[in-house]
Amino acid sequence: MKHTARIRLFLGLAAWIGLASGFAADSSIKMPWGTIASKGDRHEVRVDQWPANRLLPLSPPFPNIVSAWIIGDDGTSTQSIHWMFNPDATQIALGLPPLEPGRKASIIHLFTTEKTTEHADSTLVLSALDAKVVGEKAKLETNPGNHRIGYWSNPRDHVEWNFETKGYGRYEVEIAFSRSGRAGARLILLIDDQELPVTLATTGNWYVYTGQSAGMITIAKPGRHVARVRCVDPAGGAVMNLKALVLRPRP
């Protein structure tokens, strides 16, 4: 199913969304399809009834999602999934992959962050909400639960963060974004003196987001650091809506 079709489907689910009791930082919320157990910035979504249209509506305003993944049947493998909004972010849903044969329940993990934060497990999130935009067109767009650098129509514009860490070591870098144009936009992520080339997929719609791995970097020591996102080739149209960079510690 195309993402544009998914958007049309979930816009009609407002009544279903209203069944939820609302979001709290530490809570367990019953939904028509399962439960959401939240503890701080981590949310475990249990899907007991897999919707035929593969869309899970959430109760807005939901915190700013920067990463979403589903746990495989083996309990260890993961797959990034989409999360999507209507234009003013008053409706939000998760997009599921096709149902695997015999699968009865599924676990989805969501990670949410507002501002740039180093979390207790040393995960670093560089949020669009406090990024510095350098250029003529790109700018911050924000709704409750949806912060992103949009209007990135000039590929010479770039985004940067000055951030500080207490931890150090190897990190996997994930970019959270949406892109309506075709796949193939080429970026360079620079973290201190390290470069990661990235070729973006497409999410098919500006309101549909996902996370894409960009590779591994090393932060050699605690202290202040600089991250930048630059466009090499937009592959036609605007570059992307950039929501966050997520740096996860790895052995």
Short description:
The chain is 5% helix and 51% strand.
Write up what this structure looks like.
- It is a single chain.
- The protein is mainly beta.
- It has two domains: 3-112, Immunoglobulin-like; 117-250, Galactose-binding domain-like (Jelly Rolls, Sandwich), CATH 2.60.120.260.
- The chain is built from two helices and 21 strands.
- The chain has helices at residues 3-11, 14-17, and strands at residues 26-31, 34-39, 42-47, 55-58, 65-71, 78-80, 82-85, 92-95, 106-112, 117-118, 124-127, 132-134, 139-143, 146-150, 158-165, 169-178, 186-191, 194-199, 208-219, 223-233, 241-250.
- An eight-stranded antiparallel beta sheet has the order 4-8-7-19-16-21-11-10.
- Strand 7 and strand 8 (92-95) form a beta hairpin.
- The radius of gyration is 18 Å and the shape is globular.
- It starts with a helix and ends with a strand.
- 39% of the residues are buried.
- Mean pLDDT is 88; it is low at 1-22.
- The proportion of residues in beta strands is over 45%
Fourth-level CATH superfamily of the largest domain: Galactose-binding domain-like
Largest sheet: 8 strands, antiparallel
Structural class of the helix and strand makeup? mainly beta
Q: Could you tell me the number of beta strands?
A: 21
Number of helices: 2
Overall shape? globular
Return the average pLDDT rounded to an integer. Answer: 88
Number of discrete domains: 2
Helix content: under 10%
Main-sheet strand order equals: 4-8-7-19-16-21-11-10
CATH second-level architecture of the largest domain: Sandwich
In whole angstroms, how far apart are the ends?
37 Å
CATH hierarchy class name of the largest domain = Mainly Beta
Poorly predicted sequence stretches spanning 5 or more consecutive residues: 1-22
Radius of gyration: 18 Å
SSE ordering: HHEEEEEEEEEEEEEEEEEEEEE
Q: What is the third-level CATH name, the topology of the largest domain?
A: Jelly Rolls
